[in-house]
Specification:
The chain has 5 helices and no strands. It has 104 residues and is mostly helical. The protein is flat and about 40 Å long. The relative contact order is 0.15.
Length: 104
């Protein structure tokens, strides 16, 4: 169960790694720091509530939620990164793959 939950966290990890390059290139390292701080705090708070109820699966769920918060949803709340949020959502929906298969 824990491995299955962590597998769902992988796309968010990949998105965070890709967007971290943008933060460095645009000299927005403070925004990156804010995102990571929010994610760390969210993970601690979620683990505080989830672990007593769900055990190790709760820790994995807390990690999944905090990764998604950092890698995807935090971009929506910053004006400078809102466009990146929409790009990431489109990439997760595989919209381009669906449109290409319809064109063939």
């Amino acid at each position: 169960g824990v491995l299955a939950i962590h597998t769902w966290a992988a796309p968010f990890v990949f998105l965070a790694i890709a967007s971290s390059r943008w933060f460095v290139a645009e000299n927005e390292t403070f925004l990156a720091f804010q995102r990571n701080l929010i994610g760390a705090l969210a993970n601690v708070i979620l683990n505080f509530f989830f672990i007593p109820i769900y055990g190790v699966e709760g820790a994995a769920m807390g990690t999944l939620i905090s990764y998604s918060l950092v890698a995807l949803f935090s971009d929506y709340f910053q004006i400078k990164t809102r466009k990146m949020f929409y790009i990431k959502v489109r990439s997760l929906l595989f919209r381009s793959l669906i449109l290409r298969s319809r064109q063939r």
